[in-house]
Amino acid sequence: MNVTLRQLRAFTGVYRTRSITRAARELGITQSAASLLIQQLETQLGVKLFDRSTRSVQPTLAADEAFHSAERMLGDALGLSRRMRDLAQARAGRVAFLASAGAASALLPLVLAKFRAAHPDIEIDMRDVAADDLVPRLIATDAEFAIGSVEGEFAEMTIETLTRGRLSAIGRSTADFAARRALTWDELAQLPTIAMRRETRIRMQIDQALGAQGKHLNPTYEVTLINTALAMTAQGLGLAILPATMLPADQFPTLIARPLIRPAITRPVSLLQRQGRTLSPAAQAFVAMARTVLAGP
């Protein structure tokens, strides 16, 4: 039995108006089309729904029984249609994604704020993880995409660079430090420094680039978390060696970044997606916002 929504609309219309003519007018169809829909529904259900005369259309007991169920089915279909339309237009839904700790702290708060203002009814599930965990967690969880710094290529993954950060010396905005336009790595070696530990991707990239020029980084302190390095720098313990994009100005207003040169090293922040997986409309809207905000002015 394949009862259609058109048949249910015709049935509820006739039931309410007690007139095939008025119901047809409400539905925007001809009287004969409305009558045919009722006949088809009666045949499929195996019951008579209306007693017809030249003057009136009266519902049967079967119609009385069927009316509320028909209205509920139509309401469910309308609700589903509205929900799908809201999802398609990114007015509702949920977006779950991964972010490296540095990106989550320094770059994504502004993206989140702008996205929330534009899409207040979309649920956001951001999971901040270590950069090394981005790919395995993206493969193993329901996250739709990831944002962070990765190197190389990964099977069945697409990687799109959203922005690049210049490796910089980050320090307190003193007169002497603010007056510098840049620092060389040799100059930096004469100052107290705070670097990421050797097993982190940032440090590996630094050591590889410096090693190619016969240089070596010997920091005063080594830490695991970017925010730890910035907090120590804010206390005057040394210059943090980080991408300039990892400095959240609102959180650390006393700190400034000066690019490191000879060699200059850049680090990308990328969007990772699984190949062959279509992002939900909510996720597509978030990614579009991230592209716009991270691209800068």
CATH level-1 class of the largest domain: Alpha Beta
What CATH architecture label of the largest domain applies?
3-Layer(aba) Sandwich
Shape: rod-shaped
Separation of the first and last Cα atoms: 59 Å
Radius of gyration (Å): 32 Å
Q: Approximately what portion of the residues adopt beta-strand conformation?
A: 15-25%
User: What is the number of independent domains?
Assistant: 2
CATH domain topology of the largest domain: D-Maltodextrin-Binding Protein, domain 2
Q: Note the total helix count.
A: 12
Q: Which residues form runs of ≥5 with pLDDT under 50?
A: none
Plain-language structure description:
The protein has 297 residues and is an alpha/beta fold. It has 2 domains: 5-88, Arc Repressor Mutant, subunit A, CATH 1.10.10; 94-282, D-Maltodextrin-Binding Protein, domain 2. Helix content is 44%, strand content 24%. It is built from 12 helices and 12 strands. Strands 3, 4, 5, 6, 7, 8, 9, 10, 11 and 12 form a 10-stranded mixed sheet that branches. Helix 1 (5-17) packs across helix 2 (20-27), helix 1 crosses helix 4 and helix 2 (20-27) crosses helix 3 (31-45). Residues 3-60 form the HTH lysR-type domain. Pfam families: HTH_1, LysR_substrate. Keywords: DNA-binding, Transcription, Transcription regulation. This is HTH lysR-type domain-containing protein.
